[in-house]
Amino acid sequence: MAVAQQILSYFLRNPDVADSLTELARWRLMEERIRLSVENTQAALNWLVAQGYLQQEARVGTESLFRLNPARLQDAESLLKEERQSDDPRNQDAWG
Question: Has this prediction a pTM greater than 0.90?
């Protein structure tokens, strides 16, 4: 159903478009995946900046640059270590 939702989403955003099966499969669905990836990446970057793990450098006429906040290096390492441990099935109870 995810593919059907992606196709429908594409046509809702572009109601005047008509495309062939091949065109949809090759270009439009790839575009949709890229759009979703950009949205997900933007949300993650916003969170990392808001939490202070990354610094954002705004630049005139082009996209911002992101870099690790050296003051939060140890916090960032601890966060990743905690996430890895919580993802380890050996650390989960029977309820998962």
Answer: no
Question: Considering all CA atoms of the chain, what is the largest pairwise distance in Å, rounded to the nearest integer?
Answer: 52
Same domain, 14 and 45: yes
What is the domain range of residue 36? 1-50
State the angle between helix axes of 29-50 and 2-13 in degrees (0 to 180), rounded to the nearest 10.
90
Total tally of structural domains belonging to the chain: 2
| Partners of 55 in beta bridges | 67
Q: Do 57 and 43 fall within a single domain? A: no
Q: How long is the chain?
A: 96
Taking 70 as the threshold, does the pLDDT of residue 1 lie above it? no
Phi first, then psi, for residue 65 (nearest 5°) are: -105, 145
* 46 and 58 inside one domain: no
List of E strands, 12-60: 54-57
